[in-house]
Specification:
This protein has helices at residues 2-15, 17-53, 84-93, 128-131, 144-148, 158-165, 231-246, 261-304, 306-314, 319-352, 376-402, 406-411, and strands at residues 59-64, 97-112, 115-124, 136-139, 153-156, 174-177, 180-188, 193-194, 203-206, 221-226, 256-260, 354-355, 362-363, 370-371. It is of the alpha+beta class. β6 (174-177) and β7 form a beta hairpin. It is elongated and about 100 Å long.
Length: 413
Amino acid sequence: MLTDTLHEAWTAMRYNRRSAALTMLAMAWGIATVVLLLAYGNGCAQAMINIFASFGTKTMILVPGRTSMQAGGQKAGAALRFTLDDVDLLRMNVPQISRITPEVYKSSTIQYESRTFNFGVVGDHPNVASIRVLVPAQGRFYNIEDQLQRARVAVLSSEAKEKLFSGRNAQGECIRIDGLSFEVIGVLSAKMQEGDDDINRIIYVPFTTMGDLTDIHFLDSIGFNYEVNDYQGLERAVRAVMAIQHKFNPVDRHALSVYSVMDQIRQFRGMVLGFKILLALIGTITLATGGVGLMNIMLVSVAQRTHEIGMEKALGSRQRDVFFRFLTEALTISFIGGVLGVMLAYAIAHSVGRLTLYSAMAKHAEAGDIRLLIDPGTLVIAGLILTAVALVSGMVPAIRASRLDPIEALRYE
């Protein structure tokens, strides 16, 4: 029965080749639009994941502030001051932490020959390279020996190197930081940078050497990474430990600011889901245009074959047989158009390659380049949308054909 129905649908399509071909093209363009829009949403999501990964996904930064609640006998408004004791406290009491570093920041005058700039200088332990995913593009990062020897060595971020040295080689050269000479031992790869953000203008020096530039007794922040998945539970544990040490309420967000990359990723995923739903709706509207064309073509086909339908009913064809024959014809046209549309989408995605729509708004955004990612989930969603549109578009003419009165249909010329 199904084979006969498919054969009849194929015969009808061959009889109306031009109309069927145009309808297939409309459905192909519609499904290609759906697939490409969903692929663009996937590409945006993957690009942002790459950007977050370049900063270290499982990373937290602790920044001291001022209390806004009374706790432990302390009045609100007391300032928190981090020291190296806090680093040791966290290392011993929070086993989920894998690497941790103190951090001291200073805005300094940087000189090389006749060039002078004001850049941020940061003193960290050598493991900051792993914590913040600092990848040298040239040379190396400072190590534990440099730290122990208080070596005056510096690692330049990409934009700092360009401003100081332009296209010249920086490795092995000496720069002056607040009048003190430092040897450049490495240059970092560029990171994602929005607007006037200075992440690519920072200069890194060993934490002990930073003591030659400023007081390192009190820390500006503490950074660490971890391996567990429950980052919210880890944040609560960190707040509890620090609250006991500094006598503040653990829920006081003003006393201790915790910046978590995973928390930003969670918020971003919600935004991406809404974005992908919007793109799917736009694609569905485009595909629905092809569905309207399919419905019109099928209605014309019903009108042209009214006498034929009456003859079949007179010979014993049931109402449901006529209904399924026209519905199968509509689904066949949609299926062939869908296959052509997916092939078109793959061809466009392959030829376009990388899109730099996001990069155009940011500096050094190689990680933010967008690829059109067509995954199995995209094809499943597109297939479901195509099936829904095809069913809605095909049922109207199928119902009309199945309800034709055979006597009236036989009279139709």
